[in-house]
Write a structure and sequence with these properties.
The chain contains four helices and nine strands. By secondary structure, the chain is α+β, with helices and mostly antiparallel strands. A nine-stranded mixed sheet has the order 7-8-6-5-4-3-2-1-9, sandwiched between helices. Helix 1 packs across helix 2.
Length: 172
């Protein structure tokens, strides 16, 4: 399946979420490897593993991976899965470049949450986050709360707490 979705917003004209393509694979692999201690799978990902993952991703109709672009330059990624009937699972939310992009990541999250809410209005939104992931505070700033605490956090967001923005979506 060829996934081509672009999400933009007038409130954040410098920012867009663009479906990941073959051309993004090295960035995705590098970003994940650079932040691997923040994720469940912590081994170094080799190019052939990344390619195999991407080929599987392309076949899954319930999986959406976006590259976050600031003025056309990739700065990170975020994804979600719709495999559960009642919930959306966020994953691989990675700030690819260090620097001033923290605010842009929050804005990108608002874009993705707005898209999810528009496309899947009745589903709850959750993500599994390791307790020692430095981004836990960032998730709280985005409106997430801890739903259940296990060996890792299960974080979720109340649908009424989502910061919605007016989005423009192009799908092919």
């Amino acid at each position: 399946m060829d996934k081509k979705i672009t999400i933009r917003c007038e409130s954040f004209p410098y920012l867009s979420l663009v479906s990941a393509t073959d051309a993004n694979q090295e960035d995705l692999r590098t970003w994940k490897n650079n932040h691997r201690t923040s994720f469940f799978y912590q081994e170094m990902i080799q190019p052939e593993q990344q390619l195999k993952w991407f080929q599987g991703y392309q076949e899954r109709t319930d999986d959406y991976m976006f590259v976050i672009e600031e003025d056309g330059h990739p700065i990170g990624c975020m994804a979600f899965r719709t495999e559960e009937e009642d919930a959306i699972d966020l994953y691989n939310i990675i700030r690819g470049e260090e620097g001033e992009h923290k605010v842009f990541m929050r804005d990108a999250m608002y874009l993705m949450l707005s898209y999810i809410r528009e496309k899947f209005p009745q589903r709850s939104i959750k993500c599994d986050v390791l307790k020692d992931n430095p981004a836990v505070k960032w998730y709280h700033k985005c409106g997430f709360a801890i739903l259940e605490e296990k060996e890792y956090y299960i974080m979720g967001i109340n649908n009424d707490d989502i910061t919605m923005v007016q989005i423009d979506v192009e799908e092919e």
